[in-house]
Amino acid sequence: MDSGLAKRAVRGYGQPIMDTADLRIALFSGNYNYVRDGANQALNRLAGYLLDQGAAVRIYSPTVPKPAFEPTGDLIGVRALPIPGRGEYRMPLWLPRKVRQDLKAFAPNVVHVSSPDPVSHEAVTWARKHELPVLASVHTRFETYFRYYNMAWAEPLMEAFLRRFYRRCDALVAPSESMAQVLREQRMNYDITIWSRGVDREVFNPGVRSLDWRRSHGIGDDEIAIGFLGRLVMEKGLDVFSDSIDALRRRGVPHKVLVIGEGPAREWFESRLPGAAFVGFQAGADLGRAVASMDVLFNPSVTETFGNVTLEAMACALPVVAAAATGSESLVEDHVSGRLIRPGAVHQFAEALRGYVESAELRDRHGAAGERRALDFSWDRINRAVADTYLRLVRRKPGRS
């Protein structure tokens, strides 16, 4: 598609054509750059794309003295407190007068909220008062977190809370069709489109695999490395991962575990995986090398709405064993590029892993299929879809002059 055509949208018959450069987006995030995760990296990429297209973007998010990375765009700090039990994350509390004045002076024509926190609630109220369209992006399945902290009884309450929040928005974007379907079934909103995720093929590709790097972490050339990639927090399915590895070990299947990531549950995870190679947080080219140096990715999480780690592993030509849940279901084709297993089915996970450990031909065939699938995910094309959604909402609800 022609790039000029791709970014143009007609506001209505007889009205001037509006394009991406005319957008003024106020973006509200609970974590834009102070802790690195897939959601905020996607938001920063989106902001970069919009700025490159000539749009104005202003971000409102909690800030810390030493963030994980520099923000893309103008970042305005909002007041926040550490979340109890998860002090690395902060809860935005309210929009003080100074921030409201900044928001008014910026004069957005669309508001984007990316987390259902108190500040985003205020932002939605502000936008509705000024008859501005609101787009909400869904990045994680918050309601599922309670399962990992012995509070499953609270899941319906959280789902009701989320429904109230998302129904006040004009539209939602979800990172996968499987997640969009979940949101429809939960009656979160009736206007839901896809904002997928891209992968940087210069960073994630099979050519950056390094036997020297593997050896430096105690992984022999002939050992099959089963990888985990992500923040080390319980909601990533660390218990299912470690139980499945235990089951594989009891079957007498030789393997090595490679863990990429940091988080508050690292000590617990290390105690459950004796002999595993924990390489800590990796970024950029180092991350690409670490992922490509696995032999299979094991992702048992059910909280992802897309599964960035799954796509990154596929781009490195790795087969993926994943929970049959939102995100992974939209990426992995069962028995073609990996295995999709019922969430929590430890023994089935172990058997799927065993197949890849014992068959180089299966690893190669499914890894190649995954790499072909990863070629579909271009960041510019994906972020252009969000810009088109903004334009559609502005056309439908032009707001006050």
From TrEMBL:
Q: Which residues form a coiled coil?
A: none
Question: What region holds the Glycosyltransferase subfamily 4-like N-terminal domain?
Answer: 37-202
The answer to whether UniProt assigns keyword Transferase to this entry is yes
Claim: rRNA processing is one of the keywords in the record: no
List, alphabetically, the CDD domains matched. GT4-like (cd03814)
The molecular function terms of the Gene Ontology recorded here are: glycosyltransferase activity
Pfam families, per the entry: Glyco_trans_1_4, Glyco_transf_4
Q: Kindly state which keywords UniProt assigns to this record, in alphabetical order.
A: Transferase
InterPro entries given in the database record: Glyco_trans_4-like_N, Glycosyltransferase_grp1
Name the record gives this protein: Glycosyltransferase involved in cell wall biosynthesis
Record the organism.
Novosphingobium chloroacetimidivorans
